[in-house]
Amino acid sequence: MTDLRTSPVNGGDLFSERARQYALEKPLQRIHILEAGCGWGTGLDLGDHEREVTGVDRESPELRAYTCERPDLDTWHLGDLRTVPLPPRAFDIVHASYLIERVPHAELVLDRFVAALKPGGLMLVHLRDRDTAFGFLDRTLPRWLRAPGRRRLRPERAPFAERPRRARGAHARVPYPAGEGGAGPGHAPAGEVLTAPAGPEPAVPRPVPVVRTSPPAAIYDRVASRSGLRWYCVMRGLVVAEEYTSRQALEALGAGSGLADLLCRLVSAVTRGRLTADHSEVTLVIRKPENRFARVI
After folding, report:
1. What is the pLDDT of residues 47-91, one digit of tens each?
2. Fewer Cβ atoms within 10 A, N terminus or C terminus of the chain?
3. Taken in order 6, 7, 10, 15, is the CA torsion positive or negative?
4. Which helix (H) or strand (E) segment is 21 a member of?
5. What is the CA radius of gyration of the chain?
């Protein structure tokens, strides 16, 4: 059983630190990262360690525009997360921030991520907890009431991990199966693999993009909660190494946080504490066991 506590650092820094610790255990190995939810948020900072980053997310014009501007992705795929190509046991780290609560069939999506994770690999999850007063208000209030505060959940200037973008040379478009919002049957452009052209041309740095879109709306499947993820990990034989709570969503409301906090405490009182007002989000560091006697997905 893990202690529920407040993280000493924000989720992004914590995840980057855990990723660097994992990379230090494998100094001669390239770290393969699955950036789950690449259309929103920022990547992991592994410093100078060699890595390859693959992004996946749902298909929408806003998520595609943001994904195209990310300098840290080597390949990416947008579409139905139940069908996007994910080779088994191919990734060392799965980074899923603000994704689980905003996708349908979240348990099936998690199963695909776990199957794509190497034994001993890490799954870094940050989500808004549906079993909180904030989660209740977020899924019941009209969207026009929620939008002003939610736009501040992601900083306007996204601090991507420092990584030079290789100069554009020959590139290949990666097909993905048509799914949610797909372009129809057959193949559609889903991403690109960047390769440096022959010759001494130096790497071309990519400027940090300016983000002006609001986060995607949350759906809040049953597993999108602290208790739901704990249950999922027990049923799949995963180990929750660390677990923290935070109030980032409430703090991001800025001047309106006082009223939002009052509403959350009112909901908590009406539900007799079943929906807590003490936190709005949960951060988990999950490890897939490499013991051969553990359940293998």
Report:
1. 999 999 999 999 999 999 999 999 999 999 999 999 998 999 999
2. N
3. negative
4. helix 11-24
5. 19
Domains present along the chain, CATH in parentheses: 11-129+214-248+280-288 (3.40.50.150)
What is the bridge-based pairing of β-strands 31-36 and 91-97? parallel
- Count of beta carbons in the 10 Å neighbourhood of residue 95: 29
**Which helix or strand (DSSP H or E) is residue 249 part of?**
helix 248-251
Cα separation, 71 vs 207, in Å, equals: 8
pLDDT, averaged per 10 consecutive residues of the chain (297 residues), comes to 46 85 93 95 91 95 92 94 93 96 95 96 96 92 57 44 42 38 38 42 43 67 95 96 92 71 93 94 95 55
Handedness of CA 163, 58, 78, 55 (dihedral sign): positive
Q: Both tokens of residue 142?
A: 């009209």
